[in-house]
Description:
alpha+beta, Homing Intron 3 (I-Ppo) Encoded Endonuclease, Chain A, about 30% helix, 6 helices
Amino acid sequence: MTRKSTPEDFWARVVGNRSQRNGCWNWTGATNSTGYGTVRYQGKAMTAHRLAAFLTGLIDTTDAPRDKRSTGFILHSCDNRLCCNPSHMKAGTYAENQLEAYARRRRTAYRGETHTNAKQTRESVTLIKDLQVHGISQEDIGALLGVSQASISKIIRGVSYVSSV
């Protein structure tokens, strides 16, 4: 039997006072590129916190969900990617995990020209607003910049382009 293939082998790689539910129990083995612990268990690679959730009965399979609407995602309340303490975890959806990440400022909502889909820059938005103030129609501004009148309207109203902070 290979190392880390039994629950005992797995828990031997977790440090922290497991008699206390409030502290983190950190994985000491390998980590992936995003900082989560990784482990092989019964021939399958998975994250350490997922295996901890499985071994403690929080979830019924070690398989990660394929559907983002599934409730099989493991959410950390402590925001510690190495933590394997089941009292710091709950099962939830991908959307719940993302909302918690934004609420705790672990993720940044990209705005303005830093947004992946941004077509305008801070300078072009300034130009759009200046042209509008000087009486140039939204249709003409859109034609000048190669975007629709609706896009220009949303920029002027502050709906679709919000400057980065």
